[in-house]
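Handout, page 2. Input:
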Amino acid sequence: MKNSAFETRALHAANAGSAASAPGADKWARYLHDMRSFSADAVALETQGLLVRVTGLVLEAAGIRVPVGSVCEVRMEGQPPVIAEVVGFASDRAYLMPTGDVAGLAAGARVVPRPSPVVPMKLGALRHPWRRNVDRTLHLPVGDGLLGRVVDSHGEPMDRLGPLGSVHNEPLTRRPINAMDRDPVRTPLDTGVRAINAMLTVGRGQRIGLFAGTGVGKSVLLGMMARYTAADVIVVGLIGERGREVKEFIEDILGPEGMRRAVVVAAPADAPPLVRMQGANYATVIAEHFRDRGQDVLLLMDSLTRYAMAQREIALAIGEPPATKGYPPSCFAKLPQLVERSGNGRPRDQDGGGGSITAFYTVLSEGDDPQDPIADAARGILDGHIVLSRDLAEAGHYPAIDIEKSVSRVMTSVASREHVDAARRFRQLHARHNKARDLIQLGAYAPGHDTELDLAVRLHDPMTTLLQQGMHESAGLADSLALLQAVIAA
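Output:
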């Protein structure tokens, strides 16, 4: 590596000093060593901006030039700094979205970019400051110390069990895995729910949606899968839900058994939209961390709709035009970016391979409308969907899974041919009975005229028994398949 002009002059001076006298040479050598140490630890000057406008949820700052996604602090004397993230810019103005309360901020507050958590290059830092690896995005803790803990979107513990241990920081954004490097979905996953195991078999590494309105039992179903699914680690993201539901889900639904191998990331509905989006990304980063270590992860995110709503709030606040039902185009671009991060990793014979993320995303159908734009977009990017019916829930049928409207797109790849044929036959008989339900209830049905309907009526009670299950009851994959075969063969 060539020396700079300053170092060249210092070396010449040192050589000249050594020719003249030994003490002079020592002096110049010490001076050159000190200058090299100073240049290696030098830090480039940071630009600071000023807060010039606050409109709704958006802060506008002038005088800073940092990339989108960078984290900044808005500082005013006499109050703690407000953390904000750059979400856009126009000309010389940067748009920031705060992660906390903006009360007390005034025009002229200093906007200071946070320093990069990545260690810069030591050699040449002074001569080539633009070549340093600057990453100002948010870095949050991951590691074994998160197991059994409840944290917020910033990685801060919420369970009052003390600070986190055995963790290290990783960035929220990662480079996606090449689609050709992913291990295909070929292994079935035991969810512990009989209706899913028998009729909607899930594969390890599958991404599936749980479509439901409010109050039809989606949280209970998520808790059952968290307790009974055969996975090494469970990551639960409670995004945009009611605050009281966080503790109830952990204590009543998840329970001590489920929390033992689980990590819960909570971003309640009263959190700012940026915090809700960070919560979903943070839960995904935690799942990716354990997957890269070769572990099988179950990711439960409640809900994908709240994530899209948070993005809608941010996009509309910075001026993006609305499109379908008020959702701007960026909402439909963010959904696949989040969902595609889950799934299988690299094959087990490659470095960092062998792990998987099987993800269940709940999707809220506003007013039980199946054509809701977020629900419609989610169906196109997920590997199947499980629909919960309000009619079944009101009739006391739990879990309220509508078998006719639900589908697992990878079932034919992970289940045997006999299993797939039995599930298809079950669907035919179940649909045949539902079509004739009105006739049966009115007393207009007479046996002997339709053999298919006669069989469906005779097997209705055993089929209903297979589809129902108590929330504290576990049903393994082998037992579910055996019961399915018994019902069809009866």
